[in-house]
Amino acid sequence: MSRFVIRGGKPVSGVHRTPGNKNAALPMLAASLLTSEPVTLSNLPLIADVRTMLELLSDMGADVSLDAETRTVRIHAKRIKSTHLNKALCGKVRSSILFAGPLLARCGAAKLYPPGGDVIGRRRIDTHLDGFRQLGAAVKANGVYTFKAGKGLVAQRLLLDEASVTATENLIMAAALAKGTTTLYNTACEPHVQDLCRMINAMGGKINGIGTNRLTIEGVSGLHGTEQRIGSDYIDAGSYLAAALVTGGELTVLDVEPADFETLEKPFRRFGVRLVVDPAVKTVKLPARQRLKTAYDLGDAIPKIEDGPWPMFPSDLMSVLIVLATQTRGTTLFFEKMFESRMYFVDHLIGMGARIVQCDPHRIVVTGPATLHGTRVASPDIRAGMALLIAALCAKGETVIHNAGSIDRGYESVELELRRLGANIERVTD
After folding, report:
1. Which of 49, 118, 195, 316 is catalytic?
2. What distance in Å separates the CA atoms of residue 115 and residue 98, rounded to the nearest whole number?
3. N or C terminus of the chain: which is more exposed, having fewer CB within 10 Å?
4. pLDDT digits (tens, 9 = 90+) for 114-147
5. Active site residue 195
6. Considering the chain, what is the average pLDDT of its residues?
7. What structural domains does the chain harbor?
8. For residue 153, which of 220, 80, 209, 201 has the smallest C-alpha distance?
């Protein structure tokens, strides 16, 4: 086990390069099983969840060659020796469920154990299972998930009961090799879902409607290899910008896709943040001397920041933005709609001195600015862990964050990058 020790008060300033999108990399790694030819992915984020997915691929018989220096991986699943996934590895990562779709499509069978990952509320997989059943697979779920489609998958018209990102991705991969044309309604359309669709089309797939909530997928008899670059991680960009803001720093973020970053701009500007976005060179600049002040709604009504499916504000940045609100003059209501346990980490912020009223599991009211003080906390999940780390950067005194490994699952070498940008942070391993 490892922990971060942070001594607050140092500005986070300099130049930060955004890595590849974690949420794009994971389904794209799973999609490499759809073909017997080599698949090469570049701009790979070197995070714990990616390494676990690579272990799962190797365990199934794929030849995996990772070049960490160039952030490139070559996967050649010429033969899949087992459709039965390793139980321990499944328990490490939520995205292990994403192997069900490609294994069903290519091999007609899959056996997985309940996926691990963050505990931020109920994370149902019913949409996955129902979709596979409609495509013709026999599904059993009794402590282990067993999928069989001996005669292959058959295209259907599917209306998803929720716009689940991972369910959308799983069903896209399954439908890519199904017989006939599948139409998916109420699909997620996040940038990482779009990246997966473009990858499959580059492999010879036929997906139309990319970027919308209605996808038409014409099944093909086979897919070939491809070389793809993983898109940039706008969640990472938003996190580092927040770290610079609460510490009074000046930051330039490179490799930001402007279209993906759009959904973050409005909430940041709600707090008086001045950002300079240059689409030509894909950079976002945060000038120094920011005066953080909440912009109230008409009639001085308290504003509300709420998350939702793309293109609404992403849930993955809700925790980070709450920390930013603690350092902003004014009052803001946060409404977390997607995960009932996402807000539980605010108890730690309150313990550090934040002025927060928790109304219910989904809503909190934050009044700032508040002086935060260092303490000892444990990271409950990737995003809450990063939020606590950002809070520690602006807190007085020393903060110790246990369970640092949870942050490693979503942020690459975070302590090294923050230290390079001026923060006083170190990792201690027991």
Report:
1. 118
2. 10
3. C
4. 887 544 444 678 999 999 999 999 999 888 999 9
5. no
6. 94
7. 2-19+232-429 (3.65.10.10), 22-229 (3.65.10.10)
8. 220
